[in-house]
Amino acid sequence: MSPLLLPILLPAALGLAALLLPGRRHGTSSTLAVLGALGLLGSGLAILDRREGFSRPWLELGPIEVEFALRVDGFSSWAVVFVGLLTVVAALYSAGWWRGRGGAPGRHAALVLLAGAGGAAALLADDLLTFVLGWEMVTLALFLLAIAGRDDAGAGAAKAYTLLGVGDLALLLGAVVLGLERAGAGVAQPWSLSGLAAAPLATASAPTVAAYLLLLLAAMAKAGAMPMHSWIPTMSTTTHAAVMAYLPGSLDKVLGIYLVARMSVDWFVPSTPLRYTVMTIGALTILCGVMMALVQHDLRRLLSFHAVSQVGYMLLGLGTGTLVGAMGGIFHMVNHALYKSCLFLGAGTVERETGTMELDRLGGLGRTMPVTFGCMFVAALSISGVPPLNGFASKWLVYQGCVAADEPAMLVAALLGSVLTLASFVKVLHSVFWGARPARLDGARERGGVGMPVSMLTLAGLCLALGVFAAWSLERFVGPAVGLERGAGAALAGERSTWGPLHGPAPAPALELPNALFSPVAVTGLLVLGTLLALGVGYLGALRSRRVRPAFVGGELFDRERHRFPGTEFYRTVGELPWLGRALALGESGRLDVHEIFRRAGAPVVELLRRGHSGLLQDYVAWCLLGTVVLLALLFWS
Amino acid sequence: MEIERLGEWLFFYLVFPGAAFTLALGLALSWVDRKVGALVQWRQGPPPGQPFWDVVKLLGKEVIVPQPAWTGFLVLPFVACAAALLAATLVWHAALGLPGGALGDLVVVFYLLAIPGLAVVLGGAASGNPLAAAGASREMKLILGYELPLLMALLVPVFQQRLVEGRQVAAATLSLEGLVRFQELAGEAVYRPSGLLALLVALICCQAKLGLVPFDLAEADTELAEGALLEYSGPPLAMFKLTQAVQLATLPVLLVTVLWGGVERSPGGVATFGAKVLALVTLFVLIRNTNPRVRIDQALRFFWGPATAVAILALALARLGW
Q1: Predicted complex ipTM
Q2: d(CA A139, CA A420)
Q3: In this complex, do B234 and A542 lie within 8 Å of one another by their Cβ atoms?
Q4: Please, where are the H alpha helices in chain B?
Q5: What CA–CA distance (Å, rounded) separates A286 from A305?
Q6: Which of A3, A207, A349, B123 qualifies as a cystine partner to B76, CB 3.0-4.6 A?
Q7: Which residue blocks in A405-445 are alpha helix, DSSP H?
């Protein structure tokens, strides 16, 4: 059997076992989930850096010959390893989370593994329709996981499935348009992706542009770019934190951005208007997403809007059409999956212990939940792009991409987005971990065994490591994704050859000026050294002797229940600004939500169809007969 | 960075133009600030060594930690100082054209300079005191407000179209060395309308970044009793004071470097550069001493309204080659 099948079959088989095993005890299914995830990770590592293919003819539909074809290259092998890692983290965390709780851990484990297998299938696919198949498996797993959350999870899950369904339909249509267009041009294997990568299409003809836009729409729905994002915040409030971390937080982003990366690097040579479309969607997603996050009161909704906002950086980077920007976008996809999973998992831990996600009702948990706090702190600094964490490194590359593409407006949007993100996370840290702790939360502790802290610590550790050793990450797995087998790490050193356009030769620079560079190891080293020296000076002074006293206000000890400054007060001023406040209120009302707009526009049609559903058997039989007659008539006609 | 550069950079960071030099300069400039402020108010003002002795005294004072605080509360001021000093090193390194290759560009410096403000916010929030939290909230909103126009102003020299050897080109690099070098070829950015507007906007934003009146809302002695710094004492407070001094010695240098050219290698060049920096510091002090404190919503509206509009105008003019 080809080693390429293992990352798909192993988790799928173990997932099936978890679903079917009679002993539906928590321990068995959790073990199976972790084993399946490790299998995915291990089989991913086994095919790392290999170059091989596997194909089996499947079925023929008229002009469409469907093959089941897989192929692995530098980009996809790393992506599979990464998905394996994320699956392991999700499985480990869930193992801790289900401990001592009711529910259906077997079903949960099976669906997580199904999503992992589907993700691997899409990443390894060498055939457009195989790709669609893997992609669809992930959507299905997401829906089934989302609906299993709370009793009121149905609406959010349905909305997610609707928007993702529109995306999947667009993907299928795009794939068919692309395949037929290539078949019409006389290409030998019109559905093969490696064939497509060998001769990227110029987006000159109308069908190619249509295919590009359809695929882009699919990727936007999957990754959650605006305006296809609204399923993420809606489902977030009713879905298991590990599911949020695993699917909308990481795996869906990886798939969506993988598709955009393949499109802009390998499959197409996007024309300037198309590049601008991608960049504009990216910039707007960054700003609108983060502004919406700023005024949220529910931690999970807030995190979801950030998950939306960060997609903007990836699209913006890829849309610049420069090597450095594209590397930044792809690197940001990796980094985002790490810190956003960590944040969602931390939020899940907080919710497990306190039973609420309302920022108003939380506070002062930093001392009783130190691991969760530490990990979320690192992840929050990382998502805000504070050096030397990984989020800064990838955003830095995106900024350079904007300069290389000569786009000041996009650069300002990207930089401003970071500042706003930082502001939003200051609010989160303050309202969850600092401030005064309500007496109700005095008993909140980190329970649930080692699975939860280990998974969060892994993610936070990776955030730090990938930031400090960003050059290594670029060299190892980001470079191959943009076709640089060697020397991608030099992008951080300002090497001009890594700053050229993705397609075509690099133009000679107008002036020989020193280029921007960033040396994360040195900056980190000097920062740590400086801090230690400053602390040394402090210790030479009076820092040794400290006295702990209660804080007081106005000369009196204060009541921690009444005299609080809740984090939700932080940015009230912003919400009260003249027109910005009104825009935010409009956004929050849901009237700008695509799902809502189409729901309203389509209401008459739905109402008409609904009337046909009388519930009477004879009506349905009549409908079936009518359909058969129409079909027969059509067949005779042709 | 190669290992042989390490010794060089340790010297840059710890001695010149980093810690030792910038701290001395910062304390001297904060004396200028206090002295000019005193003169404006018909007072005598402190002797030159006063800021230094203030810090030394604070270093020896007992540290009182509020009960709900977290360890980071004590560590943050030290991180803030280290980051501000690193930013100062990078800016001076580019301004002076020192050897050894750079460690970071304009974006890195910008973020390093954001760390002190962030540390004040996080420290205030972590202290558990509601007044400090109110101060932290104000500081964060202020950061939100001024970062947008400041960013755009600092990007003006990057995108400004200039005539070099008969061709219209822009620097198109975020490297500080690159910007200095470009201005040597094309002339200083500030002598064009776009550059002048950018300097004006950046100046006002830096006033807020330094926490000076009229934008001293986060400390606001009379309303919040030092706000975010309320619970700090002893060496951590000394570190925040030092950080403020370092920023006072860094921000004007950054503005001069990217908008008004680096240091020319001659006694005259050094004197000119010093005069430019001193001129900006004097402006900070004069604005500080002649204005009342604004409210936070007024500050936000100002920065996101007129200041941003002018910054956009500057950026547009820069693209047009003005």
Answers
A1: 0.92
A2: 31
A3: yes
A4: 4-14, 19-40, 50-59, 72-96, 106-126, 130-159, 176-186, 193-209, 221-224, 234-260, 267-289, 296-302, 308-320
A5: 10
A6: B123
A7: 408-433
A375 pLDDT band, cuts 50/70/90, is: very high
The b/e string for B235-272 (b: 16+ C-beta within 10 A; e otherwise) is: bbbbbbbbbbbbbbbbbbbbbbbbbbbbbeeeeeeeeb
d(CA A460, CA A134): 29
Q: Which residues of chain A have a CB within 8 Å of the CB of B155?
A: 408, 411-412
Question: pLDDT tens digits, residue range B62-115?
Answer: 888 887 777 778 889 999 999 999 999 999 999 888 887 788 889 999 999 999
The residue in chain B having the minimum alpha-carbon distance to the alpha carbon of residue A515 is B175
DSSP tag of A563: S
Residue the block writes with tokens 């906007």:
B201
pTM (predicted TM-score): 0.91
Nearest chain B Cα distance for residue A272, angstroms: 20
pLDDT of res. B221? 66
User: Residue A19: inside a domain, yes or no?
Assistant: no
Q: Shortest CB distance from A516 goes to which of B81, B105, B131? A: B105
User: A532 to chain B, minimum CA–CA distance in Å?
Assistant: 8
Q: A471 with A613, same domain?
A: no
| Closest among B148, B116, B153, B142 to B299, alpha carbons compared | B142
- Above pLDDT 90, what percent of chain B? 38
Does a structural domain hold residue A111?
no
Nearest-CB residue to A542 (from B59, B66, B301): B59
Range of the domain at A468: 271-484
Q: DSSP letter for A441, please.
A: G
Contact A553 B131 (CB under 8 A): yes
**Residue A25 pLDDT greater than 70, yes or no:** no
Please check the confidence at residue B289 and state whether its pLDDT lies above 90: no
Query: In chain B, how many domains are there?
Result: 1
- Residue where one domain finishes, among candidates A446, A461, A484: A484
Inter-chain residue contact B67 with A545, CB threshold 8 Å: no
Question: Quick check: A387 contacting B, CB < 8 Å?
Answer: yes
In this prediction, residue A108 carries a pLDDT of 85
Quote the CA–CA distance of A396 and B105 in Å, as a whole number.
Answer: 10
For B220-239, the pLDDT digits (tens) are 666 666 767 877 888 899 99
pLDDT higher than threshold 70 for residue A22: no
- Pick from A450, A484, A518: which residue ends a domain? A484
Q: Which of A:531-560 have CB within 8 Å of B? A: 531, 533-535, 537-538, 540-543, 545-551, 553, 558
- Angle in degrees, CA B231, B236, B241, rounded to 5: 95
Comparing CB atoms, the residue among A406, A511, A518 nearest residue B185 is: A511
**Residue whose entry in the numeric block shows the structure tokens 């928007």:** A163
